[in-house]
Design a protein that fits this description.
Length: about 260
């Protein structure tokens, strides 16, 4: 494999650090999806209206920002605080996590999202999770581009504040910066694509609510956006600022 990339050592598969990091991703994704999707269901319960008004959009953006801040902050020192398969993919493309660790994270994130959606359905007396779908009058390819751009902004922010080895004290505000960009992106993309930026956030509610309309957009868009951000930041910013004699090595969550 290219320098800086690794599948993962055999001992990593059963190492306690891997188990702790995977559990952290599972729990933090559960917390985020429960609050994010829960805010959508709460508004539907209160207003009985399928139209997303300006005030509702602000409430949903705020719920996502606050819950993601908590989820990232509570798991950053253990797993790196990805809480998103697209963020993990961006880190993988940049050689910052091993393939094995990425697979563990993806499984944990998806399971956390599914359990969050199940708990929401039970706690709301059977309300069907809504998940994401492309808004009426918006084309699928338009929504795909929206998800690409929004996720690019998210993962670029993650790289700059949480992954960059030279981030310094900026790392202390990483959860806040990440929460801010997600909240802002929801305000921008919510009326068009729903502004998922996160395949796990889309998957759990889609499975439990059995709503698969346009679901492919919420996988392909975030993964493309994350890959672009990972490549541009890793090789255009970090590597460009690294002496040629310095060998790049993939980071573990302990390095974040």
């Amino acid at each position: 494999m290219p320098r800086g990339y690794t599948f993962g050592r055999a001992e990593e598969a059963t190492h306690p650090d891997s188990a702790r990091a995977t559990l952290a991703e599972f729990l933090s994704t559960l917390v985020f999806v429960f609050a994010g999707e829960g805010s959508v269901l709460a508004l539907a319960k209160m207003y009985k209206d399928t139209t997303l008004g300006a005030s509702s959009l602000v409430v949903i953006a705020l719920a996502h920002a606050l819950s993601l801040f908590a989820a990232v902050a509570s798991s950053m020192n253990v797993s790196g605080g990805h809480v998103n398969p697209a963020v993990t993919f961006g880190a993988l493309v940049g050689g910052r996590v091993s393939v094995l660790r990425a697979i563990y994270y993806w499984i944990a994130q998806l399971l956390g999202s599914v359990l969050a959606a199940i708990l929401l359905r039970l706690a709301t007396d059977g309300l069907r999770p809504r998940g994401f779908s492309v808004a009426d009058g918006v084309g699928e390819w338009n929504a795909l581009l929206m998800e690409i751009v929004l996720t690019f902004g998210l993962v670029y922010t993650v790289y700059a504040t949480a992954i960059d080895p030279k981030r310094g004290s900026l790392g202390t505000i990483a959860p806040l910066a990440i929460a801010f960009i997600v909240g802002a992106n929801v305000l921008v993309g919510g009326p068009f694509s729903g502004a998922s930026m996160n395949p796990a956030r889309a998957f759990g509610p889609a499975l439990v609510g059995w709503r698969w309309r346009n679901h492919w957009v919420y996988w392909l868009g975030p993964f493309i956006g994350a890959a672009l951000a990972g490549v541009i930041y890793e090789f255009g910013v970090i590597q460009a600022d690294t002496p040629h004699h310095t060998h790049h090595q993939p980071l573990t969550p302990e390095d974040y």
